Automatic annotation (TrEMBL):
UniProt superkingdom: Bacteria
NCBIfam families listed in its UniProt record: TAT_signal_seq (TIGR01409)
One Pfam short name: DUF1329
InterPro entries: DUF1329 (IPR010752), TAT_signal (IPR006311), TAT_signal_bac_arc (IPR019546)
Protein name: DUF1329 domain-containing protein
Amino acid sequence: MHIRKFDHDYSRRAFLSKAGAMVGAGVLAPLWPLIGNAADISKAYPEELLSIDAYTKGKIKTGDMITADNVDIVKDLLPPGTYRQVKEMGRRIRIVPTTVDATKLFPAEYLEATLRNKGKARFDRDGNLFTTDGKPWIGGLPFPDAKTAEEVYVSLVMGSRYNNATFAMRDYDIGPDGKPTYQYEWAWFEENVVARTDPTAPYLEGHDGKLRYTTALFTKPNDVRGTAFLSSWYLDQREFPDLVGYVPAFKRVRKFPTNQRFEPLVPGFTMYLSDAFAAGDPMLTWGNFKIVERRPMLGAASGNWPGDDPAWDIPVHGGPDGKTFFDTNMELVPECIVIEAEPVGYPRAPVGKKRIWMDARNLIFINMHVYDRRGELFKNYEAAWNAYEKGNLRHTTGKHTTWSWSHFHSHDMQNNRMSRSNMAKEISDGITTSFDVDGLYEKYLTRQAIARLGA
């Protein structure tokens, strides 16, 4: 008789034994030494965590479609909101192979910075992130082998994993009847002041005390064209960003209350400033961080870049009118770190807590649930991440394949309203998705810039 060294329930027991422990990622072996040596994570996890076929004992196979008919087989691998989308709203999810090559889970320069700077991060007495010699963070994941909820969460707080980024997007806001109520073209511009990936220039000169700048700019339809919101983030995560905006009706830049972060930017939008990257607020305006559990999950971590479409458009399905969800590929993520936090800096916040499922391989979120003050699920916010390659097609940043997100769903589950945005190759006004380009700050990330763009 053949006795398996790691039976089907081995990983479950392993994760239970890690619950609440100050340990890093990996089940059979620590994860990050493997990534540093060969970028191959397969020796860190047993087969049942690297193959949906093995996990489900053949009931679900790679290439299968998860539908209402078979979703109960993988119910424990889906956040509650996503399970309801499949079970009750006709959502479908295709299963793709688990990614074991860590180079497919990061921008190349960001992974290099993570390995180069490992062990150099610390929190000061206030909870702000610095290097061990007291300087602002210098690039890559601060705590790749994160052991606390704060160490996990701060990887999101540091923003996109490039020096700067332009996310050109098409947004579709779907009503309860499944029909589009609003449609926008918009762009998110970001310039990181610290944690830049160049080892000789980790900071943007002339911006001491700042963390980053972001601008949300709407270019379509005409009644919102030129609407822009600029946030200037401080390094001290106890302080709210400065928030100014240009609204065409006012024909001027005006200051907005910076702590009202739980409101839509434009009509129909269900994503708030607070939601961006699952960490859209200063870290220390949230608190009571805790690790809830570690477990495998299904997540959109690969295979979602629609590079074979000239505009990078993504097919849709589901809901009452067949337009509610993007087609999405998910893989078995071998280890997710599930964390929770509460909005301690917002006495009138309409939310009570958020729960975030973080991929332990690269510490990016795959899903966030936001709960109201009664503890009821309010919002299911999900992003799809991937290397920008498909067959022989490849999008590059510098010498390397681009890695970023490709689409997101922001589902107000109490009112059944969906906002879904996909990364577009180009939107109106000639704005293209791009990373690490010169001149982005001057063009899009100052008061003068948003006034010029609005005019």
